[in-house]
Amino acid sequence: MTPEELQAARDRTVPDVVAGGLRVLFCGINPSLMTGATGHHFARPGNRFWPVLHLSGFTPRQLKPSEQNELLDHGLGITNVVARATARADELAAEEFREGGVILADKVERLRPQWLAVVGVTAYRTAFGDRHAQIGPQDRTIGGARVWALPNPSGLNAHWTAQTMAEEYGRLRAAVDSAGPRRPA
């Protein structure tokens, strides 16, 4: 991908990978330029979402971003708090996160996943006005879904290794598994 092709992806949106009644709807902060250019979520090299999803037991093998639709076979989906692609999340205004939170809540209400997993606690805090939220299960529900804040899998998030992220994602997977089968949409 050339720098020009990446810059051409700025402000693009990427279709969600969703269906009604998912076990978990993973919610990224917003698409990267690589995601905008390819149309595949978490496509930027160095993003640890796909390895961590596998290491935590959500998928039987590590999927490639181009295989994102296979998530639906596992009762999983992907959306974003903010739909437009940027080079970095810090290019987004707080108001975009709050507006995205309203749109996300409506989407969750319509799709009825069991869990909403926001991958980025700062994005969750801003989108839903919960400035004291920590990584892990949240006390609130959104659109009827239980909520879990997960570490951001971006390679820029040096505070978490793939292994420590996989442990946290694994805590969510254990909670999902203990809740039983998917509910109907």
From TrEMBL:
Residues 15-176 form the Uracil-DNA glycosylase-like domain. InterPro entries: MUG/TDG (IPR015637), Uracil-DNA_glycosylase-like (IPR005122), Uracil-DNA_glycosylase-like_sf (IPR036895). Its EC number is 3.2.2.28. This is G/U mismatch-specific DNA glycosylase. Keywords: DNA damage, DNA repair, Glycosidase, Hydrolase. It comes from the Bacteria. It comes from Streptomyces sp. 900116325. PANTHER family: G/T AND G/U MISMATCH-SPECIFIC DNA GLYCOSYLASE, G_T MISMATCH-SPECIFIC THYMINE DNA GLYCOSYLASE. GO terms for molecular function: hydrolase activity, acting on glycosyl bonds. The gene is mug. Pfam families: UDG.
